[in-house]
Write a structure and sequence with these properties.
- The protein folds into 2 domains: 1-27 and 106-205, P-loop containing nucleotide triphosphate hydrolases (Rossmann fold), CATH 3.40.50; 36-101, 3-Layer(aba) Sandwich (Rossmann fold), CATH 3.40.50.300.
- The protein has helices spanning 14-23, 31-41, 43-53, 66-75, 77-101, 134-145, 149-157, 162-168, 181-204, and strands spanning 2-7, 28-30, 107-111, 126-131, 171-174.
- Helix content is 58%, strand content 12%.
- The structure holds adenosine-5'-triphosphate.
- Adenosine-5'-triphosphate binds next to helix 1 and helix 6.
Length: 205
């Protein structure tokens, strides 16, 4: 089984692309969603987060005060670093277990905005970057989330430059409306199936 990562900056269309892979029967692990779940359910992570921000960052029902966390980490880079040092390794460990549970598939995908920033890519065989021009990304995010341009730009500044992600990736999907997404996804799907077949043959010989 081939372990594949999909990344791209905010609003590039990662989730949209992953939905197409899911239609093709390929399982997808959404790292951001999973991180949110782990923050609510994993005892070890909860303890570490409490140590960093104080016990009262979780309420009596063990719900995390996300607004407070966001306010602190976006204003104090040192806290962001320490927070990420808790979350990133936890998501990598959890993702590895998830891949093991999906070993019967030819390939499986982990979707993560911070695939390169977190070091998560080191545990994967292939990476795909979804890319779109910044003006299109801003417009899509505004329509989806109703955020203003300044907020979106601030989030973008927290991510590695898109050009660098493109450079580091094995496959690139252009989501700028010029080439149909479905055709690009099918193309990569075929290549990954082929790669899995070759890997199987290699392991058998
Ligand atoms: P984030 O990093 O914020 O989670 P993302 O990279 O996962 O974003 P999506 O959520 O897939 O991006 O796309 C952002 C928005 O743009 C969504 O509302 C989506 O429906 C829309 N969108 C994505 N691709 C296209 C496209 N080719 N044409 C029209 N709308 C699109």
């Amino acid at each position: 089984m081939i372990k594949v990562g999909i990344t791209g900056n905010i609003g590039s269309g990662k989730t949209t692309v992953c939905r197409i892979f899911e239609i093709l029967g390929i399982p997808v692990y959404y790292a951001d969603d999973r991180a949110k779940e782990l923050l609510q359910s994993d005892k070890e992570i909860i303890e570490q987060v409490k140590k960093l921000f104080g016990d009262d960052v979780y309420d009596a029902n063990n719900r995390l005060d996300k607004k407070r966390v966001a306010h602190v980490v976006f204003n104090e880079p040192e806290f962001l670093k320490q927070y990420e040092a808790i979350i990133h390794p936890a998501v990598i460990r959890d993702g590895e277990k998830w891949f093991q549970r999906h070993a019967q598939f030819p390939y499986a995908i982990k979707e993560a905005a911070l695939l390169f920033e977190s070091g998560g890519y080191k545990h994967l065989d292939k990476t795909i970057c979804v890319t779109a021009p910044v003006n299109i990304r801003i417009k899509r995010i505004q329509e989806r989330d109703g955020l203003d341009t300044e907020d979106i730009l601030a989030r973008m500044r927290n991510q590695m430059a898109e050009a660098e992600k493109v450079e580091l990736s094995d496959f690139i999907i252009y989501n700028d409306g010029t080439a149909p997404l479905i055709r690009q996804v099918l193309n990569i799907h075929e290549k990954l199936l082929e790669l899995d077949k070759k890997q199987d043959q290699f392991e058998r010989n």
